[in-house]
Task: structure prediction
Amino acid sequence: MKRGIDYIGVGVGAVITDEQGRLFLARRGPLAKNERGLWEFPGGAVEYGERLEAALKREIREEFGIEIEVGPLLDVVDHLLPEEGQHWVSPTYLCKIVSGQPRILEPGKCAAIGWFAPEEVPSDLTVISRANLTHYLERLAQRAR
Result:
């Protein structure tokens, strides 16, 4: 049985920001489980018995070689992909890098990485990353009031 296909999968995501307020994004590679070629806030699947924060730190370490600090919860989104026959539920957290420089460690899963100002984020985002970006921008707007 496969997560997200035979039963609802749980994924976890990171909106990673730097000191300039830029957002870290990764372009999904040819071996990604879904939404290949689109930009996303990185993350991955939660393993059985694994806590959300531990899963997120593990995924980011495995894929990009960095250690992150997991901050507050940004949102929880139903990641529905009917054309791909997948359903994931994904909490996404606000995060910061505490050590290392991001690099692609799994090139099949990730084709590119980059830092983007919120207003310069590419438009070709995954379903969940579009929702995360909307919620992130709403949070920024509330803080500016």
The CA atoms of residues 11 and 44 lie 5 Å apart. The beta strands are 9-17, 23-28, 39-40, 43-45, 67-81, 86-99, 110-116. The chain has two helices and seven strands. The chain has one domain: 9-144.
